[in-house]
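Hey,
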Amino acid sequence: MGKMGFGPGNIDCDDVLEELYLYMDAETDEATKNQIRQHLEACAPCLRQYGLEQDVKTLISRCCGGDRAPATLHERVRVRITELTVEMGHLEFRAE
């Protein structure tokens, strides 16, 4: 069952970002998939994050010869992307 939230698609950004890898690998249920799709259509920061995740996945596929990164690399990349997202969020907040 999909998660309910207050963001676009009735799902919050934090929940979308948590589910991105599952969403990209088509491992989410239909309700969650629809919520995430609606959210991405309306939320520029999450859409940008989704694009970053897609790029990372493509790079891993090319470099590692497979669809899945080693768990340690996956975690390091996820932590770094989260750090960059927070930094970008602070910069965007200050710019307004």
